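Human: My hope is that you can spare some time for a protein that puzzles me. I am handing you a single protein, as its sequence and its fold in token form. Could you go through the record with me and say what the backbone is doing? Take your time, and here it is.
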Amino acid sequence: MIPALGISPGDTFTREQVVQWFAENYPKIKQGTVAAHLVRLSTNVPTRLQYSVRADGSDDHFFKIDSSTFRLYEPGRDPTPISESTPVPEEPVESSAEGTGEFAYEHDLRDFLARNLHLLESGLTLYTDEGITGVEFPVGGRFIDLLAVDASGDYVVIELKVSKGYDRVVGQILRYINWIKMNQADEGQNVRGVIVAKNISEDLRLACAGLPDVALAEYELEVSIRPISGLKA
């Protein structure tokens, strides 16, 4: 791809240029898949780890300059590529989750649901295409928490809030739904959304009351303890 694009060291290019090149030369490859591969090949983008980056360095091609501009990765000049061994700082949440029955971090909830989508809906599976999964799926410079496919083959956009879900998330998920409709879905393929939070606010319930394509769900954490025989207190 790189030689075909005519990219040389020092040149910059945009996400839109890459997407357009693929649209002209490989029109069957979806725009979201192209954007996801661009993330995977960018050495300084933390979310590349969601796309099974190879440890041998064969995926270390680009360096992201800003939200939509890239250049070739330059060993010796640029920082060491982000990999599975790179320590990634935890992102704090607004309030402590200790003793509240909620996930401490949004990525914990995301990773749990990615492995257990059947708990949300029977027949729901994580989207996959060309080695790219629906975890942190890129949409126009932003990322969907989870992109799934239901039993009918339609897309389901899943937006997660580790604590309380407020009505401002409605605009966010509608933007993602419409991006998938315009850039990812095939003709006749439907797209809907699900907002998952520990608590759904009354404002969010009201905001979604007139949106048939957006569903709401609350999660609960449960912990059970079983004694081990032979041990005494």
